[in-house]
Amino acid sequence: MAVSPFAPTSFPHLPPVAGVRLAVGQAGIRYKDRTDVLLAEFAEGTHVAGVFTRSLTASAPVLACRDSLKGGTARALAVNSGNANAFTGSVGVASVERVMETCAGLIGCDASEVFTASTGVIGERLPDDKITIALSGLKKNLAEDAWEQAARAIMTTDTYPKMATRTAKIGGVSVVVNGIAKGSGMIAPDMATMLAFVFTDAAIPQAELQALLSEANDATFNCVTVDGDTSTSDTLLLFATGRANNPAGDTADFRRALHEVLHELALHVVKDGEGAEKFVTITVTGAESGSAARRIGMSIANSPLVKTALAASDANWGRIVMAVGKAGEKADRDKLMIRIGGVSVAKNGEPDPAYRESQVADHMRGREIAIEVDVGVGQGRATVWTCDLTHRYIDINGSYRT
Amino acid sequence: MAVSPFAPTSFPHLPPVAGVRLAVGQAGIRYKDRTDVLLAEFAEGTHVAGVFTRSLTASAPVLACRDSLKGGTARALAVNSGNANAFTGSVGVASVERVMETCAGLIGCDASEVFTASTGVIGERLPDDKITIALSGLKKNLAEDAWEQAARAIMTTDTYPKMATRTAKIGGVSVVVNGIAKGSGMIAPDMATMLAFVFTDAAIPQAELQALLSEANDATFNCVTVDGDTSTSDTLLLFATGRANNPAGDTADFRRALHEVLHELALHVVKDGEGAEKFVTITVTGAESGSAARRIGMSIANSPLVKTALAASDANWGRIVMAVGKAGEKADRDKLMIRIGGVSVAKNGEPDPAYRESQVADHMRGREIAIEVDVGVGQGRATVWTCDLTHRYIDINGSYRT
Q1: Does the distance separating the beta carbons of A87 and B321 come in below 8 Å?
Q2: What does each of the 402 residues of chain B score in pLDDT, given as a tens digit?
Q3: Which residues in chain A have their CB less than 8 angstroms from residue B349's CB?
Q4: Domain for residue A11, yes or no?
Q5: Does the CB of A324 have a partner CB in chain B at under 8 Å?
Q6: Is B339 an 8 Å CB contact of chain A?
């Protein structure tokens, strides 16, 4: 498969996170000659926070994670790629339990402290025997520096591994925030699934950790879209080992670092979106509220007519008007303002008399497109990120099994 | 442009409707060597009902129609293709007024009894002078039998004209219901717009006419989708001249005929959808309500992952599970049932053990695909219709202006 034109030429170096050790292995679930299982071990007392898909047909691992999250602590994370263990009924639930129990035995913890994620085919029974055998061999390999290996093991049809790192200060003590993610390559043969795991040595109470994660997720992963489809398996987990031994204190800088890590990972998910040739930033202002602005932005970002125009480098702003109109959020037609690449194309509900299409032609032909829309009714604003809809999207999603 | 594989080999003959006369002309708005203006004249006392786009950026003609509808009577309809008169501000409003006044002068009625619809480019000033000149020449050509010409004049990138006719009895008297529509060819260079006009000689009070139209629309045009995008110009108008002189009576048979005409037109819109190679019927049962069932059906019908799988003749039912899960309506994961072409592929929240993909291979390769989903929580049911997402959709929508 062709690598995304947005693939970075080099990957960031992720430093160790005190209290986190990683190992990867080959269970042979679906892929040959590559790793497909990740085991992470966490120090005792590690707090965990999570955000999951809102799908009503969520996978068995998502249901188990939601349940384990009630305890608030984590000792292990086990991830496999190649099979989503979704729509697998009671058999799938039992598979998750076996994986959790195997990890609990390896690490020496309660099964409820083990979190799992699976990504890949829907509706096929998880070969949990292969996974538990592979996991059992990994304990001796656990290491502090296996970040890139971890990011690669969770890939499905991602064309490059996704990693980000930041440091922050809490109460004068430096803490690390590392994140890895997999994204919107098609999860053969089913759907784009987003998995992201973030690890920090910060000591932060569980309730605050959850609040920080939910807030950061809302401004990052919840603001990106490839095709508007929602996976049964989307999972974001944040593990905080506390081994930095920072005092309780102002978490504003940690909040900034967490946001930056999630932001960087979320943008990689879009840039490695199925068939993506253009990366599109849509900023909506003047909406009734921030969530109204995001819904308008998502209406533009998910419109097939907008996305096909972008793929063709066509500054077809009439389709943006259409997508604003269908979003179902308040907008003042007679104050609507649209800019493309910083050039005013429409204002006061009419085409800008000064606008000439040649002004935006170069911008439209570029890799990164900026769209700004002001809907003229309030102060709400939001930015969402998406990619274009290309022939390769259809090839990737149509040709897999036939 | 290639004609839809679903284009009928012959068109139905639409009989005259007493009190309706039609004429078409060439205003040269956008298209060369074809008609692009339709004028319809209605007998005095004609009642009118309408349903319009819910877009908040509705076009100037839609706003004018909504306003005129308050009067409840109609004497003329003027439609142009090639320019949507949308997002044209106060200039656009003035253009509609000039068209209405011209028709009022021709027919000898109040401007508020003239209905207009425009379809085509967004954000370009309507050349209303060309339209009023063309309309002025049409009065002498008004005729009872110009139905196919009318259906052709309102086309944009439709690949065939869309017509349907039925008869019904009210109080023992026979009435005619004729309909014409244009659909989801791309409205160069902007968006798929649906316009439909229905004409009957039935005598039906305006309030009842509106209720009948809203109900029939809800089960037909509101249940079809091509790409989930919503036009600024969608317009459905029903004109009832009363010239059949039927007594007031049970309108059940008229209701049936109206439903059938709208159903036939709506299905033509899907079958002539942009790039459509497959016609897909999705029936959802077991939902909490009829509207919940429709939302689940639309979530499946609008999913790019489902639509690309259909284009590839791939029975990828995992994507149907995903689309049910993201619909936001109640569904019992452990009772979910899916059938494709009548074959059970999943039941009780798991793949059907008896299912083999070969059982549906022939069905998936065919032109018409049937998907049934039962979500296991109630009695709500709905059927929606859609088409697949093909390379040609991207070509049509991406390549127009570049």
Answers
A1: yes
A2: 688 999 999 999 999 999 999 999 999 998 889 999 999 999 999 999 999 988 888 899 999 999 999 999 999 999 999 999 998 889 999 999 999 999 999 999 999 999 999 998 888 899 999 999 999 999 999 999 999 999 999 998 889 999 999 999 999 999 999 999 998 654 333 445 789 999 999 999 999 999 999 999 999 998 888 776 777 888 999 999 999 999 999 999 999 999 999 999 999 998 998 888 999 999 999 999 999 999 999 999 988 889 999 999 999 898 899 899 889 899 998 899 999 999 999 999 889 999 998 999 999 999 999 999 999 999 999 999 999 988 888 887 776 443
A3: 87, 89
A4: no
A5: yes
A6: no
Give pTM, 2 decimals. Answer: 0.86
pLDDT digits (tens, 9 = 90+) for A145-170: 999 999 999 998 889 999 999 999 99
Amino acid identity of residue B50, one-letter, is G
Contact B87 A123 (CB under 8 A): no
Among B342, B369, B260, B306, smallest CA distance to B268 is for B260
CB atoms within 10 A of CB A2: 9
Tell me, yes or no, if B91 comes closer than 8 A to chain A by beta carbon. Answer: yes
> Same structural domain for residues A29 and A176?
yes
CB-nearest to A322 from B231, B303, B308 is B231
Tokens of B176: 């005619």
Q: Do B358 and B246 lie in a common domain?
A: no
Q: Does residue B204 lie within any of the structural domains?
A: yes
Q: Do residues A314 and A186 both lie within one domain? A: no
Distance in angstroms (rounded) separating the CA atoms of residues B28 and B26? 6
Give the one of B87, B302, B316 whose C-beta lies nearest to A349's C-beta. B87
CATH of the domain at A151: 3.60.70.12
CB contact under 8 A, B308 and A389: no
Residue in chain B nearest A305 by alpha carbon? B397
In a domain, B4, yes or no: no
* B318 interaction partners in chain A (CB closer than 8 Å): 86-87, 121-123, 189-191
> Are B288 and B259 in a shared domain?
no
Q: Which residue of B has its CA nearest to A57?
A: B325
Closest CA to B239 of B37, B38, B34, B10: B38
SS3 B374: strand
DSSP letter (8 states) at residue B393: H
* Contact status of A93 with chain B (Cβ, < 8 Å): no
Q: In terms of domains, do B75 and B102 share one?
A: yes
Q: What separation in angstroms does the CA of B210 have from each of B47, B170, B213, B236?
A: 9, 17, 5, 11
B320 and B178 in a single domain? The answer is no
B44 part of a folded domain: yes
C-alpha distance from B166 to closest chain A C-alpha (Å): 33
Q: Cβ contact (<8 Å) for B56 and A89?
A: no
- The β-bridge partners of B373 are B284, B338
Answer yes or no: is the ipTM higher than 0.90: no
- Which pLDDT value is given to residue B191? 40
Domains in chain B: how many in total? 2
Q: Say yes or no: A352 contacts chain B, CB-CB below 8 A.
A: no
| CA B187 – CA B206 distance, rounded (Å) | 32
Integer Cα distance of A316 and A306 in angstroms: 8
- Give the tokens for residue B300: 């499946």
Contact yes or no for A299/A331 (Cβ under 8 A)? no
What 3-state class would DSSP assign to A93?
helix
Boundaries of domain holding B332: 279-398
The closest alpha carbon to B57, from B220, B226, B234, belongs to B234
Last residue of a domain, which of B237, B252, B271? B271
